[in-house]
């Protein structure tokens, strides 16, 4: 399963990327959402994990990106320090994982989205 992980915090990108690779996922990490659409469209991406920043402008950009990714048929779920109810309703249905979270929680979401998108189990399984 190919995963694109987008979070403005470099250390989170690095740690989550390493741990998801250890679970068997192919992971690309980006610190900025500006390149995420291009990266998702250029390569085969099954799931995008997108952090929703606290600032209103950055949040709007994240939601716009999620809309564009979904129009392209790419599964998206969110991580955030915000409460799930603060993530706008049109995106809440696909999942919001509140920080702090564990990599196995992320892997569970990836698996669920992989099943939803393809109707079959995704590649790696949570240990």
Can you give a write-up of this model?
This protein has five helices and five strands. It is an alpha/beta fold and 127 residues long. It has a single domain (2-118), classed as Rossmann fold, CATH 3.40.50.2300. A five-stranded parallel beta sheet has the order 2-1-3-4-5, with helices on both faces. Helix 4 links the parallel strand 4 and strand 5. The model is unreliable at 118-127 (pLDDT under 50). Keywords: Phosphoprotein. One of its GO terms (biological process) is phosphorelay signal transduction system. The modification 4-aspartylphosphate is found at residue 51.
Can you summarize this structure?
This protein has 127 residues and is an alpha/beta fold. The chain is built from 5 helices and 5 strands.
List the helices and strands and how they pair.
Elements lengths: L1 E5 L3 H13 L3 E5 L5 H7 L4 E6 L3 H16 L3 E6 L8 H4 L3 E3 L4 H16 L9
Parallel strand pairs: 1-2, 1-3, 3-4, 4-5
Major sheet: arrangement of strands: 2-1-3-4-5
Sheet of most strands:
5 strands, parallel
| Rg, nearest Å | 13 Å
Which residue ranges are poorly predicted, with pLDDT under 50 across at least 5 consecutive positions? 118-127
Beta content comes to: 15-25%
- Judging by the overall fold, what is the CATH architecture? 3-Layer(aba) Sandwich
CATH class: Alpha Beta
**Tally of helical runs:** 5
Described by its quaternary structure, the protein is single chain
Helical coverage, percent range: 40-55%
Give the helices and strands as they follow along the chain.
EHEHEHEHEH
Distance between the termini: 16 Å
Question: Considering the protein shown, what is the CATH homologous superfamily?
Answer: Response regulator
The CATH topology label is Rossmann fold
What is the β-strand count?
A: 5
Structural class: alpha/beta
Chain-averaged pLDDT = 78
How many discrete structural domains? 1
Taken from the alpha-carbon principal axes, the silhouette is globular
């Amino acid at each position: 399963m190919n995963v694109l992980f987008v979070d403005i915090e470099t250390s989170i990108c690095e740690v989550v990327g390493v741990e998801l690779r250890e679970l068997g996922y192919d992971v690309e990490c980006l610190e900025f959402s500006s390149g995420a659409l291009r990266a998702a469209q250029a390569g085969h991406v099954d799931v995008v994990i997108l952090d929703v920043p606290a600032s209103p402008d950055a949040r709007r950009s994240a939601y716009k990106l999620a809309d564009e990714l979904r129009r392209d048929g790419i599964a998206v779920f969110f991580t955030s320090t915000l409460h799930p109810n603060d993530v706008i309703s049109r995106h809440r249905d696909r999942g919001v994982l509140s920080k702090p979270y564990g990599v196995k929680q992320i892997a569970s979401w990836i698996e669920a989205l992989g099943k939803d998108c393809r109707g079959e189990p995704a590649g790696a399984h949570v240990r």
